[in-house]
Design a protein that fits this description.
By secondary structure, the protein is of the alpha/beta class. The protein folds into three domains: about 60 residues, Arc Repressor Mutant, subunit A (Orthogonal Bundle), CATH 1.10.10; about 140 residues, Rossmann fold; about 140 residues, Response regulator (Rossmann fold), CATH 3.40.50. β3, α4 and β4 form a beta-alpha-beta unit. The radius of gyration is 25 Å and the shape is elongated.
């Protein structure tokens, strides 16, 4: 059972982290004990004990009648360490490339990325994520890059618990790829990823310009808020193309479930399908082919992400390529700025994707530039086959 640390140690750790991260520079006057009592919602005795420990550690100088100041002599000159809290690391190709982008950044030379370890193969992804969070708090890392959980029933509760714990420990957070909660409950943390709504719009618009009239959207259940944004972009493209918006065209299903996929084809009879990501598109492709649906003759299929096996599928997949290494570089820059300027407003840093045209959409020729989407208006939509 985890033993709760004394309150004064939490105050001490938070103040030390702020000093060593550079939030308070050498010679800066610290908040008064009365201010710290209100900030940490604790007693003056607790704050006083923490301040005495900081003074003993050589981090603070206390001047009678003036207050407490950051000591110049003991400020850490070493680089900062940042924890990686990415439950899907090693399972999702996108996050590996994002981490590579962080490590390759010129900004990373003076700093370190911490890869936490989790013991016990039988633990759930939720428990593993919380264990990593606790490790980073104990190690007093300078910040945490957090890719919130998805595809689990209790993801929202666990994500919020992690965010609250890091906030209480006063550890800066930069969210990777996705927010930790729904759109209406968006928290005040920096987020770095792609513009998911625009991605959903562009990939749907690509199918519509190829002549598709009945475009469906398929995603897994319990996905992250990024999928909601991609679905919103899909709906916007359908609306902008003067096509009717049909709720039955949107399915949150297991793409490997033959019965559910057959139901979509029979009920809606799509001539194009936008998948929330390439993993969904790959599984759906195999199911459609097993059902005798020809791609792209019967149904044009597209995804988002451009993970490695997208081009290796039975029908190479048309998709949007995430600029993963650039996301990693931007995330590290955002973290360093957050550490140095903790009071700036939270930001969404959204990068654009590149359309990669392959056989699954039925288009001919090469991919157009990311910012100028050219389409072939002479292509006609295929007629779905009855199953």
């Amino acid at each position: 059972m985890r033993v709760e640390a004394p309150k004064y140690k939490k105050v001490y750790a938070a103040l030390r982290r702020d000093i060593e991260s550079g939030r308070w520079k050498p010679g800066d006057r610290l908040p008064t004990e009365a201010d710290l009592v209100r900030t940490f919602d604790t007693s003056r005795i607790t704050v006083g004990r923490a301040m005495r420990d900081l003074q003993s550690a050589g981090l603070v100088q206390r001047r009678a009648g003036s207050g407490s100041y950051v000591a110049a002599a003991r400020i850490s000159a070493k680089g900062l360490s940042f924890g990686l809290l990415i439950p899907d690391l090693g399972q999702t190709e996108v996050f590996e490339a994002i981490c590579q982008g962080m490590m390759a950044s010129p900004l990373a030379r003076a700093h370190a990325l911490v890869w936490g370890s989790v013991t016990g193969t039988g633990t759930s992804r939720e428990d593993q994520a919380w264990s990593l969070c606790a490790q980073y708090i104990d190690r007093r890392v300078s910040g945490v890059f957090f890719a919130p959980l998805e595809l689990t029933p209790h993801k929202d509760d666990v994500n919020q618990r992690i965010v609250r714990a890091l906030d209480e420990a006063r550890i800066p957070i930069v969210l990777l790829d996705r927010p930790a909660c729904g759109y209406s409950e968006r928290e005040g943390h920096d987020l770095v990823g792609i513009d998911n709504r625009r991605a959903g719009f562009l990939i749907t618009d690509h199918l519509l310009h190829l002549g598709c009239q009945r475009v469906a959207f398929v995603a897994l259940p319990n996905t992250a808020a990024t999928v909601d944004a991609r679905e919103a972009g899909y709906r916007e493209a359908v609306y902008a193309g003067n096509h009717p918006i049909d709720r039955s065209a949107v399915r949150r299903i297991d793409p490997s479930d033959t019965a559910k996929v057959r139901e979509l084809i029979q009920d809606y009879r799509p001539d194009g399908i936008v998948c929330a990501n390439d993993r969904t598109a790959g599984a759906l492709m195999h199911t459609l082919l097993a059902l005798g649906v020809s791609i792209p003759r019967d149904v044009r299929l597209v995804g988002i992400d451009d993970i490695e096996y997208a081009r290796l599928l039975p029908v190479p997949l048309t998709t949007l390529r995430q600029p993963t290494r650039q996301i990693g570089d931007a995330a590290l820059a955002a973290m360093l700025e957050r550490v140095n300027r903790p009071d700036i407003a939270a930001r969404d840093i959204l990068l654009h994707c590149e359309l990669v045209v392959r056989s699954s959409c039925g288009a001919k020729g090469q991919s157009p530039p990311a910012t100028v989407l050219s389409h072939s208006p002479t292509e006609t939509a295929p007629t779905p086959r009855a199953l």
